[in-house]
Every structure is written in structure tokens, then in C-alpha cells.
Amino acid sequence: MFEREPHAAEAARLEQTAAALVAVQSASFDRANDATRTSYPPERRMSGEQLVAYLDARLYAVVATTRADGRPHAALSAFARVDMQLWLPTVSGSARSRNLARQPALSLVVSDGEGPDHAAVVIDGTADIVPVTGAPAEVDDAYAAKHGSSPEWASEWIVATPTRLFSFRDGDAIRLVPGDRELVLRHVGIDRHLADEVENRADVVAVGLRVDLLVDVEEAGCF
Predict the structure, then answer these.
(1) Fewer CB atoms near the end CB (10 Å): N or C, the chain?
(2) In the 8-state DSSP scheme, what is residue 153?
(3) Residue 42, φ and ψ in degrees, nearest 5
(4) Who contacts 31 (Cβ-Cβ below 8 Å, separation ≥6)?
(5) pLDDT over 90 for what percent of the chain?
(6) What is the pTM of this model?
(7) Radius of gyration of the chain measured on its C-alpha atoms
């Protein structure tokens, strides 16, 4: 028998995050110039639910910070999402950590695909440096669930809070990692401890969860 309360709370939290992200995106386009709005037409922008799903499906972001002499520094980083913040593991004294200590602002690009199937989220935001020992337990849990293990090598987390966000998706759907059934289940509102009880799309519908948050789960190869 399904337990409704735990996954209902998680689904509500995902909805709040989706609403927060799309609010940042809407405000960003309101402030943008015509060239930016033309480059990201409304019909190609991701919804709040798609933003959450996309950020959770992608493993890495290109992160840009500013060096002491004003030159840009960009590097790939793994990340995990907790609510609307992105948490990036790093080590004390890294180039990005030093840059952010001087100027706590960054840009991130999360992209996927090529040609007619590409998608991207571009984020500008503020950055805080948090020691690993000072991070909430759910950060490590989110990272391990996404990447398969905790970042044992890290001594700090960079916490990026979006202040500007633009998204673009070509084609009709946000792509998922093929076969990642658990990822789909998390995004339609099922906690991991219920995943083994859900065998197909009918079971998802039977417990009253929103399959429309994502592309069709059967076509994604997740069941």
C-alpha cells in the first residue's frame, strides 16, 4: 500500500521550487533587451517544472567566475540542486573559491544535446562558500543520489543562488538520462523508498501524481 504523506510533501516542495525558478526567469526576461528576448522566444523557454527536471537530470555545469585581474575563469563542475540553490563541491584554495571570496558572483551554463535537440539553462547568481561540515545533510544526500557517491574529496561547497535565469529548449521535450527510472519517479513526486512499488505509468497515475511534469516516462525508457 502506498504511503501518501511523504511523497506529497516532496511533490509540494518541488512545486515551490519550480514556481521560484520560473519567477526568476520571468523577471529576467522582463529586464532583458530585445536581442535576448528574441534569442529565447517564449515558446522555447522551459516551464518551472521543466527547469527542475532539467537541472536534476544534468550532471555538470560550466561555471564562470572573475579572476583578481578581471579575466574570466571558467571550468566544469558537478552540482546538485536543493530547492532553487545549486551546490557545487570544491576544495579550499581552488581558483573558483579564491575568485568568489573576492567577488561572490558567478555564471553557470547547463547545456545538453546538439542541433534540433539541444537545451540550455543560463544562470547568473550570488555565491556563498560553505564548509562541508557546515552544509545541511540533505545536500550530501542530493549529491550522492545524483552522482552515485558523496564528494569525499571536497572541503567546501559553493552555493549558487540564481538572480537571473534564461532557458531554451529545442524540440518538444526535455531529455532524461535513458533508463533513469528513479529520476523520473522523484520528479513525479515519489520518494525513493516507494520506487520499487511503482512498476509502470499506470501505477504512477493510480497514486494521483503528475506525470505531465516530464516527458512520457515510457518513451524515456525508464520502465
Answers:
(1) N
(2) T
(3) -55, -40
(4) 164
(5) 64
(6) 0.77
(7) 18
